[in-house]
Amino acid sequence: MNTTHSTLNESQSLDWDESISALIDGEDISFDLDNLDNSYGRQVWDTYHLIGDVMRSDELAIKPSDLFYARVSKAIDAEPLPVAPARRLGLRQGLSGLAVAAAVASVVWVVQPFMAEDKVAPPVSAPVVASQTAPSTELNRDYNDYIHAHRQMVGARPVHLVSYEFGANR
């Protein structure tokens, strides 16, 4: 099977080169060695072995000179620096700050009644009437019985409620 490189199309050539590479690496044992019996096959075989020899041996590799390093360094210095476009600060940043402020204000507005103490000052201008009497204990007892019955009907709750009983009535 004498196959020359000129009769191989590009995809077959790539597959063939990969097969030779796999054969040299010890991965492909199904490759037919008779395919190497032409000038192109020998050239590819020699090239792959030369590459392997250079990779394994420092003596065969060409040492770059100081001039080479200087040229590479100069070429890197001559390249333009990558510049990112300026970041646009605009409406988006302003709106995000406004959203945060609105969220804080709404939390304060909702939480404030719960955090405030129940201190209600009596009006200064209203005179104290001596004829007002304290609520009767009978009214308090009826109210407490109603609250107690309501709690029994509602059942257990995950939140403990404060008792509204007055003094030593219960």
Automatic annotation (TrEMBL):
Domain Anti sigma-E protein RseA N-terminal: 17-85
Pfam families: RseA_N
Origin superkingdom: Bacteria
Keywords for this protein: Membrane, Transmembrane, Transmembrane helix
Coiled coil regions, renumbered to chain: none
InterPro entries registered for this protein in UniProt: Anti-sigma-E_RseA-like, Anti-sigma_E_RseA_N, Anti-sigma_E_RseA_N_sf
Transmembrane segments: 95-115
GO molecular-function terms, A-Z: sigma factor antagonist activity
Protein name: Membrane protein
Organism listed in the record: Advenella faeciporci
